[in-house]
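$ ./design --mode recover --in tokens.txt
reading tokens...
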């Protein structure tokens, strides 16, 4: 980032960072306070890296955010049939996710459905895309579910532009690269098994996903310090 500043010929740079970008911005401002101008950090990780603790915060985050979608869906029950009250919407979501764990529809299992919901709650504008997917999955309509899932996929920022040269798995590949190398992760499977069991009970909207290991099967290279 500082080399970018040099290349631009600027004495100071302004910075906007969201999510993992808050870690980069905080690190830069800490290392080079005299070279920063205006800095905006949105959706702070709560630490200097997307480490295991930050990963675990995704689950309560969705639990908090889900209420916004549930209220929206309850007001539109005649259209989507997801539940007449926010409480009913939430109960129906958990029940459908568990049903999809046992019997996927159009290749969409419970974990995939939970991830679609997790992604859709990042912006209110995505509510109108996740609701039809939920509806088609609940109806067991595989063709409609596949079509609605594709709509959600193409709405992802890196896929939104027609003819985008960005590979579909680019975001996940980059994500794993820095998550696996920024900090150390437990290497014993039992740790993750215990966390998964606890998370399934405590945060049913995401179930086990945020506590599952994202540690890459890397070589002997030790993790770098966050800063």
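writing sequence...
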């Amino acid at each position: 980032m500082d080399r970018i500043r040099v290349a631009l010929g600027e004495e100071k740079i302004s910075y906007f960072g969201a999510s993992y970008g808050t870690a980069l911005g905080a690190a830069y401002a800490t290392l080079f306070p005299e070279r920063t101008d205006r800095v905006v950090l949105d959706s702070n990780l709560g630490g200097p890296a997307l480490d295991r603790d930050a990963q675990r915060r995704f689950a309560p985050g969705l639990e908090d955010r889900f209420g916004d979608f549930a209220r929206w869906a309850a007001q539109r029950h005649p259209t989507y049939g997801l539940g007449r009250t926010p409480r009913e919407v939430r109960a129906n979501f958990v029940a459908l996710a568990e049903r999809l764990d046992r019997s996927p529809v159009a290749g969409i299992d419970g974990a995939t459905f939970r991830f679609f919901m997790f992604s859709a709650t990042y912006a209110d504008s995505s509510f109108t895309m996740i609701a039809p997917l939920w509806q088609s999955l609940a109806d067991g309509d595989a063709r409609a579910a596949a079509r609605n899932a594709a709509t959600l996929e193409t709405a992802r920022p890196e896929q939104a532009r027609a003819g985008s040269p960005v590979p579909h798995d680019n975001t996940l590949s980059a994500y794993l690269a820095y998550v696996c190398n920024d900090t150390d992760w437990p290497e014993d499977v039992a740790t993750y098994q215990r966390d998964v069991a606890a998370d399934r009970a405590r945060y049913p909207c995401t179930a086990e996903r945020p506590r599952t290991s994202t540690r890459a099967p890397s070589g002997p290279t030790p993790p770098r310090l966050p800063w």
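exit 0
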